[in-house]
Design goal:
The chain is mainly α. The chain has one domain. Helices cover 70% and strands 0% of the residues. Helix 4 runs antiparallel to helix 5. The relative contact order is 0.18. It holds the Pfam family PAP2. InterPro entries: PAP2/HPO, PAP2/HPO_sf. This is Undecaprenyl-diphosphatase.
Length: 192
C-alpha cells in the first residue's frame, strides 16, 4: 500500500513539475512561494483587524503569529523525524527535477513547512473571519493551495509533502481558531 502511494506521489510530482508546465507558469509560480510577495496581504490584515476590532484585533494578530509559529515548529519536528529527501536532493530523482528556485533547501521534505504554515494561517483566518463573509474567507484556502502547488511545481516538494503539511496546518489552525473564538472572538468595538 505504501509503495503504491509513493509511486503515485512520484508520478503526480513528475506531471506537475515536468508535464503541466509552460514558460508563463515558470515565470509566475516561483514568486507565489516568496513571503514578501504576500506582504500587502499581511499589512491589509494587520490594518483591518486593528481598525475594525481594536484590542481584539491586537489579540487576533498575536494568535495569527502563534498559529504560524506552532505550524512551523511542528512541521520542522516531523521533517527531522521522517527524514525524507526533497526531490531536488534525491539522487534517484534529481536528474528528472526542474528546479525553478535559486537553491534547494537541505532540510527534509515531509512535511512541507510552507504548506503547514499557510494552511494553518488560512484555516485560522477562515474560522475567525467567516462571520463577515464565508466566500471571501474561503479565499484563504485558495491562497494556501496556490502556495502548495508552487512548492511542487518548482521542484522542492512532493505532492504528499504538501498534503501532509496541509493536514497538519488545518489541525493547528482549527485548534488555534477554536481557542481564539471561545476566549476572544472578533466583534466590532462599540463606540459611544
Amino acid at each position: 500500500m505504501l509503495e503504491r502511494l509513493l509511486r503515485l506521489d512520484y508520478k503526480l510530482f513528475f506531471y506537475i513539475n515536468n508535464v503541466w508546465q509552460n514558460s508563463v507558469l515558470d515565470a509566475i509560480v516561483p514568486w507565489l512561494r516568496e513571503p514578501y510577495i504576500w506582504a500587502p496581504l499581511y499589512l491589509f490584515l494587520l490594518l483591518f483587524v486593528t481598525i475594525n476590532y481594536g484590542w481584539k484585533g491586537f489579540w487576533w494578530i498575536v494568535f495569527f503569529l502563534l498559529t504560524f509559529g506552532l505550524a512551523d515548529q511542528a512541521s520542522l519536528y516531523i521533517k527531522e523525524a521522517v527524514g525524507r529527501l526533497r526531490p531536488c536532493r534525491d539522487p534517484l530523482m534529481q536528474h528528472f527535477v526542474r528546479v525553478l528556485v535559486v537553491y534547494c533547501p537541505g532540510s527534509g521534505s515531509f512535511t512541507s513547512s510552507h504548506a503547514a504554515n499557510h494552511f494553518a494561517l488560512g484555516t485560522f483566518c477562515f474560522l475567525t473571519f467567516r462571520h463577515i463573509s464565508k466566500l471571501y474567507a474561503s479565499l484563504f484556502f485558495v491562497w494556501a493551495l496556490l502556495i502548495c502547488y508552487a512548492q511542487v511545481y518548482v521542484g522542492v516538494h512532493y505532492p504528499l509533502d504538501v498534503i501532509g503539511g496541509g493536514v497538519l496546518g488545518i489541525i493547528i489552525g482549527t485548534l488555534s481558531a477554536g481557542f481564539f473564538q471561545r476566549r476572544i472572538r472578533l466583534e466590532p468595538e462599540l463606540t459611544t
